[in-house]
Amino acid sequence: MATSSNKVFILLPDGIGLRNFIYTDFLTYNKAVVWTPLDYLDASIEQLRLPDYRSHKMTDIYKTALVKAQLFAHYKAFGDPAYLDYISLSKSKTLKGKLKATLIDWFAKKYADTKRLEQLQEKYIKSIKKSDYYLQCRAQLEGEQPSFVFCTNQRMITAAAPMLAAQELGIPTGTFIFSWDNMPKGNLSVPADHYFVWSEYMKKEFHKYYPDIDRDRVHVVGTPQFIPYTNERLYESREDFCAHYNLNPSAKIICFSGDDVTTSPHDPLYLRDTAEAVRRMNELGGGKYQILFRRCPVDVSERYNGILEKYDDVIFSAPPLWKKPKGSEAWHGIVPTPEDIKLLVNTVLHCDTAVNVGSTIAHDFACMGKTSCYFKYNPVDKGAWDIHKIYRYIHFRSMQGLDPIYWIESSEDIDKMIIAATKDSEKKILDAKQWLRTIVTHPLSDANGRIWKTINNITKVKPCT
Hints:
Blueprint: E1 8-11, H1 15-22, E2 33-36, E3 47-49, H2 59-78, H3 95-110, H4 117-129, H5 132-144, E4 148-151, H6 160-168, E5 173-176, E6 194-197, H7 200-209, E7 218-220, H8 238-244, E8 252-257, H9 267-284, E9 289-294, H10 305-310, E10 315-317, E11 322-323, E12 335-336, H11 338-350, E13 353-356, H12 361-367, E14 372-375, H13 387-390, E15 405-408, H14 414-423, H15 426-439, H16 447-459
């Protein structure tokens, strides 16, 4: 298929891509057509709407089974039980859901071998190509003839059909690995010719898990996720920010960053313990402290309501500014806004530290030269959920040799760790910054330029001016 000389398609399947690419300076580097099902793009952005997603009945089963099979294969290959910690059990109570989970487990165990994974991958791809959605995506590509298709999220099943259609038509493709913890999880659901990763560390991980993919097809570019922290035009004065959220500008601000319900079901208890600690600290004198609560954007539950009401003297909320489209129940249907980018930047700018369960926000704070605290105790006895499982995850090994985090190992340690973090030792800050450098290629502000340089090198097209 002949392609146009300079028409790049940005395949943007979800709100994470909006935040990382559309709300940063990505589209200032080159012309592109945004290929997306989302309705939130500015009218000035050239865009093409994806067809309505309709999958083959087996596609989701094969996709989920493939992820599980890869984790089982990693466990067999490396002898490390930490890979099994990534596997979540089905919570479906319906007969249909239970049957689906049983079928997924059967496929996962049958193909949980490095040599047999390829067979399951073929089943997954064949099922995608049987859908009308795939044919409609292919027809759009035949009509538009782009020179390259760049996908902003390697996990989204809705992106697999457009990418496979492009490959069948001879259009080069690339996908971005959207999070720092994705490589060990076995979730590479979007086939591509090229893969864009955050760092040399992530590239080594990629080749560990996918040794058959040529090294020259994996490109180190960084991530646009942290670019907003380098944009001083987003910064507000401390007085304005505090006034908006009823904070005391002369007191220390502790950001409590919530996780989703699955990752941290006991977040309300951690918030309660933190509020109790802050009350004690304020009663003892030696400085004033307050909590700015930022819930996980996709957590729309009411689980914090009682805690927020009981501790309204020390907890102040800054709700994420995300939108939920009508009729969308899936977490990836909730999308960020440009206003939330500014809110997050100023939250990190004006808070003195963050407390949470293993969140990426530790890297956000490192962007501003600050450290964070991780909870490392179980707030209830004999619960099915265990926080120590969180820190066994492979991606936390990236901090090996460094001491970038203040660890809160009991509720009695919260005040001590918060005081230490707000004063901060020089070594902790240096280690937090070094951990960030391990995870993300620097300079942070140049990530989008590196991505476009790589795309232009692949397509041999000169960048637009």
